[in-house]
Amino acid sequence: MFTGIDEVDWASLRHAYGSAEEVPGWLRALASTDPVERATALDGMYGAVHHQGNVYDSTLACVPFLFALAAREEVRDRGALVELLVSIGTESEGSTESGGPARSDRRAEGRGSAQGGEWTARDAVRAGAEGFLALAGDADPAVRSAAAGALVRFLDEPARALELLRRRIRAERDDRVLLALTEALGLFVRRYPAHADAAVDLLAEQSAPPYTAGLRLAALGQLALGAPGRSPADLVPTAVRLLRERSAHRVRAPREPGTDTLVGRIRRLRPSDEEGSQLLRTLHTALGDRIDDRTALLAGQLTSPDPVDRYNAVWMAATLLRGWRGDHTGSVTLLGAQLASDPDRLREAAASVLAEMFVLAAPASDDLHGLVATRPDLWTHRWERGAPTLGSPLKALVRSGDPRAVPVLAQLLAGPEAPADLGFELTHLGRAATPLAPALRHRLGRVPLAAPSAARLAAPLLSAVGAVEDTAAVPEVLRLLSGVPDGLGAREAVTDQAIRTLETLGAAGRARPVLRALLNTRHAATAAGALWSADGDVDAVLPVLLRELSEGDPVNRRLAARQLGRLGPAARAALPELHRAARSGPIRQRASAACALWGIGGDPEPVLPVLRAAWVEAPRTRGPIARCLLTMGPAAAPSRDLIAAELASPHRHTARRHGSGGIRAIPEDEALLKTCRAVLAGT
Fold this sequence. Notes:
- The protein is mainly alpha-helical.
- 61% of the residues lie in helices and 1% in strands.
- It contains 36 helices and four strands.
- It has helices at 23-29, 35-49, 57-70, 78-91, 121-127, 130-136, 141-154, 158-171, 175-191, 196-206, 213-226, 235-249, 262-269, 274-287, 291-302, 307-323, 329-337, 344-355, 365-374, 392-399, 406-414, 422-426, 437-445, 454-467, 474-483, 490-504, 512-517, 524-535, 538-551, 554-567, 575-583, 587-601, 608-617, 622-632, 640-648, 665-682; strands at residues 14-15, 18-19, 380-381, 389-390.
- Strands 1-2 form a two-stranded antiparallel ribbon. A two-stranded antiparallel sheet has the order 3-4.
- Helix 31 (575-583) runs antiparallel to helix 32 (587-601).
- The model is unreliable at 94-117 and 265-270 (pLDDT under 50).
């Protein structure tokens, strides 16, 4: 297995954290009879040699030894080794490097190559592809399952790969391996469309009796992904029926405790029915922008008699609501129904997802309120370290804007240790939270100015007093603005927010001396805007804002542009510099400058092209751009096509290709849609 391993100069090779000198030890440990030693070695392979899917020169050097290990029947956990090989060969497609963090445009260098001196890890895995043939028929089902997709990924002959899959399907009796073979067929259809007809026929065959419900569900998902024309017209009802049939016959095996390693912990965090989760995730992916069908599929999942199916559906609902627009009332209502479920895991998952919905969680507000009213133990979440935070049910109720949360928040504020995030969250209640103003004001007045925690304690409270417009809290805000000692970092952290709060409360004039003193600091743009709102003295603030526009850091440049736009025609002296800023520099800065140009000059000609470019290049600028277009009224008419296309798009502008777009993805997108509708009405 390890012939030649000592001839490799491992110390000169690299992995994610430096020299690869410990890699041969990990490779040898993968053959150990000790499960902890094997798991620890696998941790090393995934944590360093194949860190986050990246590939290094040491990764390439490991490939032949991994093949040798996978081929020896006496080696335990060979399925995991085949999975690692497949991952290395797959992830290295356009994502390899030698000696440093991998990037998609760099490659791992090898010891030889037939083409230009480059030898990627994918090349190395493909060179050993014949080894996958034997593994596909191995006695170990885990090995057969892991090798199924490799036949499609790494064999260079499509017809041969398809014939091998056909033979394995006819011979296989293990349902889990059959599932992997079905997924491999779907991959074949997508990878080799010119050879896909026979594979599609096999998938169609598997989607009907006498195959099991799980296998039929898998085949339907692969057909929907690769050959939607061959999917049944009643795809969603059929999928729901098969899901319930599968769940009724699923054997619920107890989870193995696993080892206390990274890989072991990841495995324990997987869904208890990972297979079912993947089957339905494939269908959701295939349905894509067909929101009505996906909503119907979710409804079938969320009303399943099996709580495991409903648990999987909760997280699929999160993906749908984060990434796609539409009428989600029914899905949210069904999420609320899960709050009464017995399994804690299901209830916690539903509450967590509803907390991300903000105002869209309103259809579940009665269920949320019922849970909050009967379970005070869920009002807060206590972490191992740090202050408590609002528990998910109460947080979701607050973020939905439901005033029934106010009495509970009042009790928490009256307690000895209010949740750290309470002030930030109650801003979603607006003026409905006004009864909490005295308690908030009291806590703000008790923030210890000289403590390192001053900024952390003050920030949520400042947000809260601004949201409830508590003018009686002005003395407490002034105390923070002028009383925090320099040198602790707290003053730097809290100053901008304190200024904005005073402005919100219409009390910036009471802080004139402090604001003037801040005009030569990093808070200059914020202080200048507050002085303008208090006095309207353009001569005092215009030079400061011009300086920040040309010399400040990127954040302050954008802020200075916004403040100049607020000054309107009084800031005409800033037009030349704003024109320059709108023509060059980062796109977000250009967009801010363009909006300021409109606010000052009222000429749409130099503004609209910049806003159009930013709208396309930087989707997260669409919110402020739409607000700017709203102020333009009929002058924004040339941008109607952008606005109309946005309103017609099923995708949230905050959704990213890989990831949800952040915790505020949904409210930011909903706010954009509201503004876009107003822009169309105004043009």
